[in-house]
Design brief:
The chain has 9 helices and no strands. The N terminus is likely disordered. It has 231 residues and is mainly alpha-helical.
């Protein structure tokens, strides 16, 4: 649509009507806590310190180093990239409200995520270290693939980045539950609940349409499935 300054502005039909201020405040908190730059680090933390055997055999120092690598690649570099782009006026806001604002961050994250996948995938081959667990490598690969698919989908719709990350995690946990001899019932219930909360929060405090949120979940799920199939 054309705004009052005669500029072309993206618009969409909100999937939910205006909500009470208290509910919007809760939705914002959920959106910040489960922001796409934080979710991968949470998953790596779970694999490192909660899952009983994914990182079995890793020393505390090796686990800490892995955690730091994840924090740098999944959180620090993407945040610094967005802040630099805002400072150089390549994007209008750090919240990436438009499809145009998301193009360069997608491409930058593609580099950071490819780097962490490449390092982890070759960890035991290039140094005298234990191989990185397959689940961690596949998860890193899925985040990389999601930026490629997300960038392409972004041409058509402003796909929800929160939903993409939620879709990756949900699919990962479902596949681990199906493929591992563990009781994943509680964790699956938690992940399904969090996925619902994240998507609902985006409906409440953003201008995302149902197509953009559910499309994000699909992008995340497809990326994780491709990573499992290829890896």
């Amino acid at each position: 649509m054309i705004n009052e300054q005669n500029e072309l502005q993206e618009t969409g039909i909100r999937s939910l009507p205006e909500q009470p201020a208290a509910l919007k405040w809760v939705a914002k908190i959920i959106s910040y806590i489960f922001h796409p730059v934080f979710v991968p680090v949470m998953v790596v933390w779970f694999l490192l310190y909660t899952h009983p055997y994914v990182f079995a055999g890793f020393s505390p120092v090796q686990k800490m180093r892995t955690m730091m690598m994840a924090a740098v690649s999944f959180t620090f570099f993407p945040l610094v990239t967005v802040l630099l782009l805002k400072g150089l006026k390549f994007i209008d806001t750090i919240y990436l409200h438009t499809q145009r604002d998301r193009v360069i961050p997608f491409m930058a994250c593609m580099i950071w995520y490819f780097w962490i996948w490449y390092v982890w995938n070759n960890f035991g081959k290039t140094r005298d270290e234990m191989d990185m667990p397959r689940e961690a490598v596949q998860f890193a690969f899925a985040t990389f693939i999601s930026t490629i698919i997300g960038l392409m989908v972004n041409i058509k719709i402003k796909v929800s980045l929160h939903a993409i990350s939620a879709g990756i995690v949900l699919t990962l946990f479902i596949l681990m539950a199906l493929g591992q001899q563990l009781n994943f019932g509680v964790w699956l219930a938690i992940i399904f609940l969090l996925t619902g909360l994240i998507c609902t929060a985006r409906f409440i405090v953003s201008d995302h349409t149902a197509q953009e949120v559910y499309g994000g979940l699909a992008v995340g799920a497809i990326a994780m499935l491709i990573a499992i199939w290829v890896g």
